[in-house]
Amino acid sequence: MELMTITTTHYLLLSAVLFSLGVMGVLLRRSAIIVFLSIELMLNAVNLSFVALSKHMGSADGQVVVFFVMTVAAAEVAVGLALIVALYRSLGTTDVDKVHELRG
Amino acid sequence: MDALFFYLIAIVAVASALAMIFGRNATHSVLLMVVNFAMVAMLYLTLGAPFLAAVQILVYAGAILILFLFVVMLMGNDPGPLWEQLRIQRPAGLLFTVLLIAGLVPVATMANVTGGQALAPLSDDPKVLAESLYSSYLLPFEVTSLILLVALVGAVVLAKRSAYRTEREEELHLDEV
Q: Quick check: is A70 in a domain?
């Protein structure tokens, strides 16, 4: 892997780093909003590797999958943010450590 | 030149992701995610996927992150306790992240995946994507519309203010949300 010629490997490595950063955000932060943003970061990193491999394989299938991931991410964000708002309404906080009761 | 461009974008993307995770202000974190998504959109451009780059900006930066901003502003941007209650959680989280990177890097550099050659140009055209989407991926496409409908209804049901206030809400005096 040469340094000055950009290959698929470079994109995959960047995608791996971004994904790991997303995992780190989920593991370390306790604010539900930041955890959720980190999940978006992970989805985005996977999208990047899909597009890179789609180009590597010379096929458009990877890009179609990215479309679906984006759509499902949009749906997930709508429901997830509604959950966070409901959580804030019943607990007065978005700290995920505070969410340890079954009763609302 | 291409390599320089890639490295610049990669550095900005990683730096904005790090700043997002370690930021103390939720609004700043959301805005840093806009930067990150814009950088990834530029990478899509370099990968010959201009349509996806536009969708990335429109859907992620334009719709999803605006939704995040609305929610952050609704909650008064209260970061709450920033870190964990368990003392072991932070070192354990960092350890797992390092282990994950150590595990992913060999996979990304596997020779039989990448071949190591420069990227071949892909005859990219929104038309190619659309043909694929409406022929071989027609069923997933239709299911997607159902998912969006369910998400829409679900979001309204979950976020709707209920007719009665719970005891907890009375205790917390949460009138404004």
A: yes
The domain of A91 spans 8-97
- Here the ipTM equals 0.90
List the single residue in B13, B128, B151 with the smallest CB-CB distance to A78.
Answer: B151
The model's pTM: 0.86
Which residue range(s) make up the domain with B141? 2-79+122-172
**Other Cβ atoms closer than 10 A to B164:** 6
Split into its structural domains, chain A has a count of 1
| Chain B residues within an 8 Å CB radius of A91 | 168, 172
Please indicate, yes or no, if residue B100 is contained in any of the structural domains. no
pLDDT tens for each residue of chain A, 104 residues long: 567 778 888 898 999 999 999 999 998 888 888 999 999 999 999 999 999 888 888 788 888 999 999 999 999 999 999 988 888 888 777 777 777 777 65
Asked whether residue A2 is domain-assigned, the answer is: no
For residue B48, what is the domain's CATH number?
1.20.120.1200
Picking from B80, B115, B137, the nearest residue to A64 by CB comes out as B137
A6: which 2 tokens? Answer: 């950009």
Q: Quick: pLDDT tens for B51-60.
A: 899 999 998 8
In DSSP notation, B62-112 reads: IIIHHHHHHHHHHTTT---S-S-SSTTHHHHHHHHHHHHHHHHHHHHT-HH
